[in-house]
């Protein structure tokens, strides 16, 4: 049975890690380089780094911060925010990332998924998707871009399938409704997407306690779970989360620290 991954998310704005609720009312958490090192040393399986205002501000990613974070860790590292071309992706990979996450730019230019997979390999290409519950959509969820600011006409399920067909090798699926609430993942959304695509799906948005990860692994069929608030605020640790999941029979990787 494949091991489930615990992925820690660093949302970065103006060079600092920040966290909000449903993409609003963000508060500063700390330095991304120091936090990355801390989470690596305490057993995170992967890290994701999102420059959360790059797309909305129409600028490139903070490449020097990416380079500094990559120098501190020795686990898979995914980077997203404002990546609009193959050169942008190449720069991030050369800076030390193993994967590039494409969200708003993939919606605006879907061909970038195919081009990125052809150039760097499907395993490097992650679709980041922010979805909002909307009964007007066939699946019940609408894709939203630009950091939750801009609704699209895309149905979440249709977009997931299309993105995988174009070359996405993984999907990080974030529920805007659950994001930052710490009330649990949107398991209905996660399960629907997980069962519809052939690539790993990382559940994102809503983790507040270890039981929420157990739920999304069992009911949502997630391959990995992203955590932020529950570890940023010190209420839980990655080793503690893994210990709980192991006790429940969920296969997880041993802590390195």
TrEMBL record:
Belongs to the HisA/HisF family. IGPS catalyzes the conversion of PRFAR and glutamine to IGP, AICAR and glutamate. The HisF subunit catalyzes the cyclization activity that produces IGP and AICAR from PRFAR using the ammonia provided by the HisH subunit. The keyword Lyase applies. The gene is hisF. Its main location: cytoplasm. The keyword Lyase applies. InterPro entries: Aldolase_TIM (IPR013785), His_biosynth (IPR006062), HisF (IPR004651), IGPS_HisA/HisF (IPR050064), RibuloseP-bd_barrel (IPR011060). This is Imidazole glycerol phosphate synthase subunit HisF. Pfam families: His_biosynth. Heterodimer of HisH and HisF. GO terms for molecular function: imidazoleglycerol-phosphate synthase activity; lyase activity.
